């Protein structure tokens, strides 16, 4: 069966951010992982909280899901597509393959 979402590379995500493309970016890692380094402006909704917080994600907008390696974000894509979301993208390789700037919670850019 074909998946209900598309894979997107970290390079494409970086391009979309630079272009200020009308996309919502959701990081599904745990808060500790997010604090160590995340993409600036990306909303944190840990996979463990996704069921409770699913209404924070706009069904009508393209949505990129991000995690450490692409595994949890694919689970998030699967769950959201089961709820009727149709414009989903999984960032393959996750933050392990991210080469853009990273924001650390102490305020330093990386």
Protein model, in words:
The protein has 110 residues and is of the alpha/beta class. Helices cover 28% and strands 17% of the residues. It contains four helices and five strands, in the order βαβαβαβαβ. It has helices spanning 10-18, 31-36, 50-53, 71-82; strands at 6-8, 23-27, 43-44, 62-66, 88-91. The chain has a five-stranded parallel β-sheet. The chain is globular and about 35 Å long. The protein starts with 5 loop residues before the first strand and ends in a 19-residue tail after the last strand. The model has no long low-confidence stretch (mean pLDDT 93).
Q: Which characteristics define this entry?
A:
single chain, 5-stranded parallel beta sheet, alpha/beta, 110 residues
Gist?
With 110 residues, the protein is an alpha/beta fold. It has 4 helices and 5 strands; from the N terminus they run βαβαβαβαβ.
């Amino acid at each position: 069966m074909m998946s209900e979402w598309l894979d997107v590379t970290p390079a494409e995500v970086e391009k979309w951010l630079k272009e200020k493309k009308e996309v919502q970016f959701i990081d599904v890692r745990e808060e500790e992982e997010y604090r160590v380094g995340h993409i600036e402006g990306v909303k944190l909704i840990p996979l463990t909280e996704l069921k409770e917080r699913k209404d924070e994600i706009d069904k009508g907008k393209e949505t990129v899901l991000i995690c450490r390696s692409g595994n949890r974000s694919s689970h998030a894509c699967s769950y959201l597509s089961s709820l009727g979301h149709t414009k989903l993208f999984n960032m393959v390789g996750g933050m392990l393959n991210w080469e853009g700037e990273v924001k650390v919670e102490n305020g330093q850019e990386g």
